[in-house]
Amino acid sequence: MPMDGWGVMQQATELARRGEPFALATVVWRQGPSSSQQGSKAIITADGELRGWIGGACAEPAVIREARQVIQTGAARLLLLGDPEQFGYPAHAAGEGDELPSGMTFVPIACHSEGALEVYIEPMLPIPHLVVVGGSPMASTLADLGRALGWQVDLIAGSDFTTADATERSLVVVATQGHDDETVLERAVAARPAYLGLVGSHKRGEAVLGYLADRGADREMLARVRVPAGLDLGPTGHREIAVAIIAELVQLRAAGELPAQEPRLRTGGDRPAAYATDPVCGMTVDVGAATRSTQLHGQTYYFCSPGCQQAFEKRETRC
Predict the structure, then answer these.
(1) What are the distances in angstroms from CA 154 to CA 78, 185, 253?
(2) Would you kindly state where each structural domain of the chain is located, as residue ranges?
(3) What is the pTM of this model?
(4) Number of alpha helices (DSSP H) and beta strands (DSSP E) in the chain
(5) What is the block-wise mean pLDDT of the chain (319 residues), using blocks of 10 residues?
(6) Which of 89, 62, 93 is nearest to 77 (CA)?
(7) Which of 24, 57, 101, 236 sits at a 20 to 30 Å CA gap from 44?
(8) With b meaning 16 or more CB within 10 Å and e meaning fewer, what string describes 252-263?
(9) CATH architecture of residue range(s) 129-261
């Protein structure tokens, strides 16, 4: 049984809690006959799973395909499903060209129906997870700055920090400042976070990293440790160091240098690897092992439904 709006939002909350990227699709306009209703919602995960209800067999493949692109680019879009003239555009309008405003995409659907939909698809990408390890005023200031940016922040004492407190998408700053730095950093290295910084001087950093290298810690991760953590702002106080660190994290995110923050699109199984246009109705079709197709004169044609395939074969037989 499809989820209602509350069920969809509960699923969204759970995915966000786990730090998984997804897209939220909402029907903002419909023209009957259509199986969806205005306000209908669905979640589309990064690997193309749809949870909720956005429409029938005609609409869902297009929504899933566009949603995965929205997740990948991080840019929302308004999807027009139907005939261009149903939305007040010329019959030749298609895609994101001169006929459509920026951020709108037209996808023809037919399925022998006169229905049409406008679906708004917005990306829901993971917010940064900042883990600050330490108990100094600088650590507290850094945690406050992260929260002010809307990030998920954990402030943990060095003695309480474990590898399980961070993941591959976390941004970890070790600010124990001489209080068992080696043990804490070793645990942080084992978590393989997207960012790992150590608050301390170059000389102190060399000693800590050398000690961990001798203990057999992952040398690739050790090479990624930023020490001193943060941008070089010259002589600064403890709270200014927090500003330097948050500035470095913002800079790295803006430059796309924190890969664990980006959505990972998984492939495999029966997910389509390409798309084709149904020669009868003009609908975009996901090409996969189960897609209906016909071979003619050395070319493969793909169809959205048995009806379109039959109509094509009858037409070509008469020619």
Answers:
(1) 36, 16, 19
(2) 11-124, 129-261, 274-318
(3) 0.61
(4) 8, 14
(5) 77 84 93 78 93 82 91 91 72 54 77 76 91 95 96 95 94 94 97 96 95 95 96 87 96 78 42 68 75 88 84 80
(6) 62
(7) 101
(8) bbeeeebebbbb
(9) 3-Layer(aba) Sandwich (3.40)
